[in-house]
Amino acid sequence: MPHFAKPAEGSWTEHFPELGTGPVRFEDSISPEHYELERQAIFARTWLNVGRVEQLPRKGSYFTKELAVLNTSVILVNDGERIRAFYNICRHRGNKLVWDDYPNQETSGTCRQFTCKYHAWRYSLAGELTFVQQEQEFFDLDKNAYGLRSLRCEVWEGFIFVNADPDAAPLTDYLGRFAEGLTGYPFGEMTAVYKYRAEVASNWKLYIDAFAEFYHAPILHAKQYVAGESRKLSGYGFEALHYDLDGPHGMVSSWGGMAPPKDLSMVKPIERALRSGNFGAWDRPDIPGLDPLPPGLNPTRHKAWGLDSYVFFPNFMIVVWAPGWYLTYHYWPTAHNRHIFEGTCYFVPPRNATERLRQELAALTFKEFGLQDCNTLEATQTMLESRIVTEFPLGDQEILLRHLHRQATEYVTKHQTA
Asked: Which residues, other chains included, contact 375 with Cβ-Cβ below 8 Å and sequence gap of 6+?
């Protein structure tokens, strides 16, 4: 469906009649049985973003990614020609191949080969078994048959994805129209990185819900604004600029591009002093790719555009901010009612101390907003699990929530009937 502006009559949700407009159930977020099905139906069959190419800058660079939802760990490595992905398991006795002091912690570094801690079997960067300790004691061992087990690995705009399904469609086909509309944005220029990680006692989809609508912003985040703006926002509510769906993915576009705001009294003193805040530094970096923006950004071409938030199913979000930076969210399930949240802010490298402070203020402000969003989740999880209430009405601006839970259920249903 092409991009469109909301008409005078009707609603965003009604443009996608397959979603319906009735109350929804959140059984997919509280059922251990449903979660076990999601692991195979969704996470073992879709493209999962595990990092960026800047993490693998040269031949021999590697990092590991723990994927508890698949009961596995993977190695991402630059072999000098391409980025490869391998399951992090030695072919001799099944020891985890790459780890430091604690086997469940992720690690990174640079090496010429991978050597198992247990019996010193060695593997090339391309995954071939190159050395077996006391090889003569093994029976008819064909080293060519015991290389590292690989999994699908593809890159889009510097984002590294893996897929455990060897028969999955190519990455760009899966990411669809939204990725096409973002192609050309200068993601690779934004290499100053701030990372946050939290273990959250809620289902992975409930945190996506928290970031997939801004209906909550004037209420939950009221104390982030100066008093006058807080009262104004809570009095008038919030209306996003645009919503859209494409296959399993969704997006929302929001106003808020006030850099600087028309009235400096609208923001806090520290924001006035540093010319920065929740939307990032007010002074846009001078890099190619920001003017003009790729066609997928600010689809309504609104003058007060502030950000676009893309939900790439199942668990990856990209948020592009008007002042010229972006952040990503990842939601990695560990149980039906627990997951690991990762938030990462990306900026153009600062040229001086002032620019660095502006970026740090934006990153810290994001962290505070994220904590406020996260603060509701465990309470939501416990009450949903009580099943005292089992049906919940969703507003028009909660269309991405309706879509996400429908997609999760449809993937499971399709898996069960395959």
From this structure: none
